[in-house]
């Protein structure tokens, strides 16, 4: 019997669940766990800690036993600690999680929220205790706070705190309802390519920031300004550390334009360390999207820009306004010792560091809980509220 801990973050409750099954259901090199759990996410109680499925993926048992809660504890950082490490955080407004009202779920770790029942914002958060994800969340928040305002970059709004101990659990940004360039029905403009190369030059050559995830899905179109907006900086690097082979922004722009024009996403499915821009630059591009100019105009501009950037490749390492941020600190919670078995002499073995949520609760540590109703209930509630509003409006008339 295999036990797999999963954090389900989109359709249903955000929490850790142990999914139990045999090797037949969970082949070693295939990630099928989330798709199996997704079948039950809308129906599981927030108290469920483990579910068991048969070889066909059908539910055969559930457990609410706290001893089966192997969810890792996330030591969210206190605002005061973060401000001491990064004084610029003190200049930014905060908002408590209880002040936000959930409207929709835009994707894993991103919700559409409102506050004061008026302003809509995108709330980005990390409910997963994977070290890389924690690093990425810390980096993105600090980077967005330090980024100067730019017409083609999604602006940072507020730091989001949980209500009990004022720990940082995420942040909000402006919500732009225009959709992204991943929408194949949206005609693509030549000026948007110009805007994209300009904002990439600004980030790379002025600030030393490499986005590392330039893609149609990360480019919004602001319906008010008709400009493209770059967002999702959690893979960003500062030009000196964290750079990944094949994820430089020049390559990102080339592959993005190719995908937008041809609707061929295969090159982006190739591992980034194995692909080069020659794979698409040296072939014909079959246009499968409405453009406001001929494909040749786009390609000529792109090729000239790539040549210029190749000549200036070293400049991103010596950017005149290089942005930096402190390393992610170790959460104070991890310094609290806890028991972990026995020594050879039969004495209690103590350790510090990462721990399960169950252990943290036993030690009296505060654990922020992400459970919330499944998305299907959220949508039903929104529909019911809409019908009530229509009814009230009709009666008033």
From TrEMBL:
Q: Where in the cell is it found?
A: Chromosome, Telomere
InterPro entries listed in its UniProt record:
Kinase-like_dom_sf (IPR011009), Prot_kinase_dom (IPR000719), Tyr_kinase_AS (IPR008266)
Q: Where is the Protein kinase domain?
A: 97-397
Top-level division of the source organism's lineage: Eukaryota
Keyword annotations for this protein, in alphabetical order, are:
Chromosome, Telomere
Q: Which reaction does it catalyse?
A: L-threonyl-[protein] + ATP = O-phospho-L-threonyl-[protein] + ADP + H(+); L-seryl-[protein] + ATP = O-phospho-L-seryl-[protein] + ADP + H(+)
Q: What is this protein called?
A: EKC/KEOPS complex subunit BUD32
In its UniProt entry, the species of origin is given as Penicillium patulum (Penicillium griseofulvum)
* GO MF, one annotated term: protein serine/threonine kinase activity
């Amino acid at each position: 019997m295999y036990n797999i801990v999963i954090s389900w973050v989109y359709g249903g409750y955000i929490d850790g669940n142990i999914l139990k099954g045999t090797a037949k259901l969970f082949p070693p090199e295939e990630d099928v766990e989330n798709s199996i759990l997704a079948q039950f996410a809308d129906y599981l109680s927030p108290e469920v800690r483990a579910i068991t499925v048969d070889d066909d993926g059908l539910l055969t048992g559930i457990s609410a036993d706290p001893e089966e809660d192997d969810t890792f504890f996330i030591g969210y950082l206190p605002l005061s600690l973060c401000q001491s490490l990064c004084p610029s955080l003190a200049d930014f407004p905060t908002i408590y999680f209880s002040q936000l009202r959930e409207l929709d779920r835009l994707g894993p770790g991103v919700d559409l929220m409102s506050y004061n029942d008026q302003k809509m914002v995108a709330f980005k958060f990390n409910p997963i205790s994977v070290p890389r994800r924690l690093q990425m969340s810390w980096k993105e928040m600090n980077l967005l706070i330090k980024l100067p305002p730019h017409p083609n970059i999604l602006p940072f709004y507020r730091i989001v705190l949980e209500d009990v101990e004022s720990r940082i659990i995420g942040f909000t940004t402006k919500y732009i309802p225009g959709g992204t360039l991943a929408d194949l029905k949206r005609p693509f403009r030549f000026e948007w390519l110009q805007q994209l190369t300009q904002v990439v030059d600004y980030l790379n050559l002025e600030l030393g920031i490499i986005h590392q995830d330039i893609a149609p899905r990360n480019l919004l179109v602001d319906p008010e300004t008709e400009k493209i907006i770059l967002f999702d900086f959690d893979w960003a690097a500062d030009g000196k550390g964290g750079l990944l082979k094949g994820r430089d922004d020049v390559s990102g722009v080339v592959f993005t334009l190719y995908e937008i024009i041809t609707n061929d996403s295969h090159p982006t499915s190739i591992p980034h360390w194995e692909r080069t821009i020659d794979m698409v630059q040296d072939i014909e591009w079959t246009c499968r999207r409405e453009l406001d100019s001929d494909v040749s105009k786009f390609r000529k501009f792109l090729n000239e820009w790539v040549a210029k950037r190749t000549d200036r490749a070293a400049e991103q390492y010596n950017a005149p306004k290089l942005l930096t941020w402190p390393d992610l600190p170790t959460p104070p919670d991890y310094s609290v010792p806890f028991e972990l078995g026995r020594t050879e002499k039969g004495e209690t073995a103590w350790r510090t560091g990462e721990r399960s949520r169950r252990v943290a609760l036993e030690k009296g540590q505060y654990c922020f809980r992400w459970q919330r109703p499944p998305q299907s209930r959220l949508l039903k509630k929104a529909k019911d509220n809409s019908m009530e509003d229509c009814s009230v409006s009709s009666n008033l008339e």
